[in-house]
Design a protein that fits this description.
2 copies of one chain form a homodimer. The first copy, chain A, has about 425 residues and is of the alpha/beta class. Chain A has 13 helices and 20 strands. Chain A folds into 2 domains: about 5-175, 3-Layer(aba) Sandwich (Carbamate kinase), CATH 3.40.1160; about 255-423, VC0802-like (2-Layer Sandwich), CATH 3.30.2130. In chain A, helix 1 crosses helix 4 (about 70-85), helix 6 (about 155-165) packs parallel to helix 8 and helix 7 (about 200-205) runs antiparallel to helix 8. The N and C termini of chain A lie far apart (about 45 Å). The interface of A and B includes residues 56, 69, 72, 76 and 92 of A. Chains A, B: Pfam families: AA_kinase, ACT_9. Chains A, B: GO terms for molecular function: aspartate kinase activity. Chains A, B: Keywords: Amino-acid biosynthesis, ATP-binding, Diaminopimelate biosynthesis, Kinase, Lysine biosynthesis, Nucleotide-binding, Transferase. Chains A, B: It is an enzyme of class 2 (transferase).
């Protein structure tokens, strides 16, 4: 008998009908001979409504209390889901994150899981129950306070439980059919990916793909837990994310997995930085001390005549104010002329392990952008990804052009061969 | 420094404004030099909304999951209240029933508190925090499952915590000014009671007064915790419930504390019962086995000619069906002619320890009812209470008549003297 962990997002359990539909699907998995653990998010807009209430009573809600508040959402959905399953004649028990043994650090609102001790879940399964677990929440190791895991936390809960219980698969149910070669809202011809490696999925996630968060995929890779991303509204196979294709699936790794884009970032350019050792370090120490996460970094070639250079980096728009303030405050220590802030940028990324061994991918990428008349402002690469920053307005057209150029459109032949030498 | 436990009901924290108003009041108590523990109910209609959701997914929600669901309500209100207090510049921490050490038995939906181990509350207080505790909930001793205490459970939580923490007073904040000599919706001239003994309060509570539940008063009496029932909307003194009048209050015990009424009961008459030993036992064993709680019991004098008698008893209307079914099922074993069910009855009770020593109270009570043209169907008495059953339609007039006759009206002189000998 296999052990399956299923995770259902808020849109899948938005109302009583949704909960009943999900309950039927869970019972199917149980009837198929599996032990079933279900991780569930808060219903639909519940979390937003709770946040709204918090803002009405306090402009700066304290972390501990904010977590206590938000975790009420999953408590409601998991209890209702357990009731709905029992109403179908099957045994189910719901567990809070704390009861399920999800132990975290004490960083409220974005706690990290440091251990999972699912003794009560194991007992419930052994007694023939379906176990329903509240996603997104845990209990802190030192203070025994309720914590939340931050954005996408329910996916992480599911993968962490799957790892602790040595599950065969972690099924992530959502409102889309799987991971696509590009955002289907932008690229009509985007194709559902049948299988993708952890590495490519990690790059897609950190490049703007919203289906799975980086943190959840990273956890799954570390413990080698296959993820199956699929729709809770259909019975279709979705996208498998794993180290190797699963079972008898003869899926060959695509050269290019997909095109991701992201318009949530801004660019800061530090102008007139003396080109001497320690300058970049001073800038990024300032940013790090302000607890701002940065993404791409580019340093221009220094102008010989002045001995000054410019350093640009991208960061979430939401952290722009904080970064600017920190830099301005430390301007005397760092030494620069001025700051430029630009939040009208977009990032397009091409991801695929195949680019390691297929020369010419980079050239073809830039040609596609050039043919579409898209100007490139910054470039950054990893072994299996190329990213460029463009004007935000150019993003949709750029994504479509690249998607077509690499033969990813659903009506094109698959194989695309690249000439040239090296990337 | 004194320790005060305050309890706020759902109507006091119905929205963000209510929560902010309550937060100010709590901070006042803290500023007055007290250690403050606050027990809070779910906001306004939250519990009803959750029950409605449960009914949508399952006609018979399981006890364990139902409790898990309902406890989300207090989790929301307590976290918001803690945030609102912190926003006023004071430290506050919220605790679930489980975190607060409220240990119960495993009877879901109406668990009983069997122990309170408020170690975390004590620590929070010692560190200068205001402690906010979820009312109505606990954790079962054996299975560590979340439980709820049933109707009025938050009051019981407050009194139990007050006892465990050896508080000076348990303040119950509600939407009325205190306990009245009669229901002010029925008797316009009803008077707020300044002080009432535990015993009289217990009788009022079991006779239909809704302000405090019997269970909560019983707990307070056992541990001798003074209760102060008052309005969260005004700064007025409310009603003190304690063994003796508190502090320098020279309040004399009234002869009559008040008039309670109850129209939530029905009457079942078992007609044609053989008048021999064991018959009543058979009837009430049947009722007890069906887990139906009964109130008044009256057996008529047997008719000599037939050797048959009638037995009548009252019970909550909500349990009428269950009792009738159980009796019909056991009719062969018990032996009776027929059952009569009457849900158009009402009960009027006069409560006051003074009736023990003031002869004539019973006579005056019956005279008042007679003068008002109210027919009496059943009578039951305790040492400090007389109750009668009448037609439901007669109840308002009967309550007003008795209230006036015993000098309880707010514009009458207080002292009323009764003549006659004995009750």
């Amino acid at each position: 008998m296999g052990l399956v962990v299923q995770k259902y997002g808020g849109s899948s359990v938005a109302d009583a009908e949704g909960i009943k539909r999900v309950a039927k699907r869970i019972v199917e998995a149980k009837k198929n001979g599996n032990q079933v653990v279900v991780v569930v998010s808060a219903m639909g807009d519940t979390t937003d409504e709770l946040i709204d209430l918090a803002e009405q009573v306090s402009p700066m809600p304290a972390g501990r209390e904010f977590d206590m508040l938000l975790t009420a959402g999953e408590r409601i959905s998991m209890a209702l889901l357990a009731m709905a399953i029992k109403n179908l004649g099957h045994e189910a028990q719901s567990f809070t994150g704390s009861q399920a043994g999800v132990i975290t650090d004490s960083v409220h609102n974005k706690a990290r899981i440091i251990d999972v001790t699912p003794g009560r879940i194991r007992t419930a399964l052994d007694e023939g129950n379906i176990a329903i677990v509240a996603g997104f929440q845990g209990v802190s190791q030192d203070k025994k306070d309720i914590t939340t895991l931050g954005r996408g936390g329910s996916d992480t809960t599911a993968v962490a439980l799957a790892a602790a219980l040595d599950a065969e698969v972690c099924e992530i149910y959502t409102d889309v059919d799987g991971v696509f070669t590009a955002d289907p809202r932008v690229v009509k011809k985007a194709r559902k990916i049948d299988w993708i490696s952890f590495e490519d999925m990690l790059e897609l996630a950190s490049s703007g793909s919203k289906v799975l968060l980086h943190r959840c995929v990273e956890y799954a890779r570390r413990y080698n837990i296959p993820i199956h991303v699929r729709s809770s509204f259909s019975g279709l196979q979705g996208t498998w994310v794993s180290s190797e294709p699963i079972g008898d699936k003869k899926v060959e790794q695509a050269i290019i997995s997909g095109v991701a884009h992201d318009t949530s970032e801004a660019k800061i350019t530090v102008v007139g930085v003396p080109d001497k050792p320690g300058e970049a370090a001073a800038i990024f120490r300032t940013i790090a001390d302000a607890e701002v996460n940065i993404d791409m970094v580019v340093q221009n070639v220094s102008a010989a005549s002045t001995g000054l250079t410019d350093i640009s980096f991208t960061l979430p728009k939401t952290e722009g104010r904080k970064a600017i303030d920190a830099l301005e405050k430390n301007r005397p220590g760092i030494g620069f002329d001025s700051l430029r802030y630009d939040d009208q940028i977009g990032k397009i990324s091409l991801v695929g392990a195949g680019m390691k061994t297929n020369p010419g991918v980079t050239a073809a990428f830039f040609e596609a952008l050039s043919d579409a008349g898209v100007n490139i402002e910054l470039i950054s690469t990893s072994e299996i990804r190329i990213s460029v920053v463009t004007r935000a307005d150019d993003v949709p057209e750029a994504v479509r052009a690249v998607h077509t150029a690499f033969g990813l459109d659903s009506d094109s032949d698959e194989a695309v061969v690249y000439g040239g030498t090296g990337r």
